[in-house]
């Protein structure tokens, strides 16, 4: 997917890009691809969850590049396409607003007409089940109504922007989740530290999303159920 989208090689011409290998299926030849495109490649032969992978990458960046506290650490899914020009917008906006956690305007098509479900209100337990079994999601914010920079509850984990110091202060993602809800959790913990996520509607990217958690009784479905329970319990504890 990374090879097909060809986003990272372009980004790596201007920025530090680090990829964590997480699948035997795609491992063959990918290290060479990264080497040829100036991409740092991590392969520790372990299939880790979303949060643990990103925490590992963050630690790698700290050790190798010694970033400044106000440098930006961007969590970028392999199925997201963004240009260097949009990254430059992010840097310019960070210089202006000094945000510590932010997200962007994600679309599911390259014409930027169909919005991804990238910003939402915090869910309650019933919202998860309505989404699964009724196909109704009351947490999604209509982004056509949000044209200016705004604080939101929850940003999609497919593209999250952190100041290095803030990610470190949050101790990264909670690794008890394997997949799903890590983004809700870290946004919630950030808000509890009086730092709400900021939505940047003028920055656009494409998210070729695949929602495998919709398949009932698949492993993705069970990962999602487990994550829902973890977040619900944590939210009851962290007041």
TrEMBL record:
GO terms for molecular function: transferase activity. It comes from Serratia sp. (strain ATCC 39006) (Prodigiosinella confusarubida). This is Glycosyltransferase family 2 protein. InterPro entries: Nucleotide-diphossugar_trans. Keywords: Transferase.
């Amino acid at each position: 997917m990374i090879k097909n989208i060809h986003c990272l090689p372009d980004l790596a011409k201007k920025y530090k890009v680090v990829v964590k290998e997480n699948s035997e299926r795609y491992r063959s030849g990918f290290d060479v691809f990264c080497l040829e495109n100036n991409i740092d490649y991590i392969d520790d032969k372990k299939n880790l969850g979303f949060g643990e992978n990103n925490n590992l990458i963050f630690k790698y960046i700290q050790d190798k590049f010694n970033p400044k506290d106000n440098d930006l650490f961007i969590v970028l899914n392999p199925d997201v396409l963004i240009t260097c020009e949009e990254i430059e917008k992010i840097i310019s906006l960070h210089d202006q607003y000094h945000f510590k956690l932010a997200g962007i305007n994600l679309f599911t098509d390259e014409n930027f007409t169909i919005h991804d479900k990238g910003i939402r209100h915090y869910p309650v337990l019933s919202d998860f089940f309505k989404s699964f079994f009724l196909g109704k999601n009351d947490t999604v914010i209509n982004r056509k109504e949000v044209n200016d920079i705004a604080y939101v509850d929850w940003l999609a984990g497919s593209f999250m922007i952190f100041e290095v110091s803030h990610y470190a202060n949050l101790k990264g993602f909670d690794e008890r989740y394997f997949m799903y809800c890590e983004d809700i959790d870290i946004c919630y913990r950030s808000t509890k530290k009086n730092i709400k996520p900021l939505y940047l509607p003028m920055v656009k990217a494409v998210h070729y999303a695949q929602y495998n958690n919709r398949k009932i009784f698949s492993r993705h479905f069970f990962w999602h159920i487990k994550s829902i329970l973890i977040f619900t319990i944590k939210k009851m504890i962290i007041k």
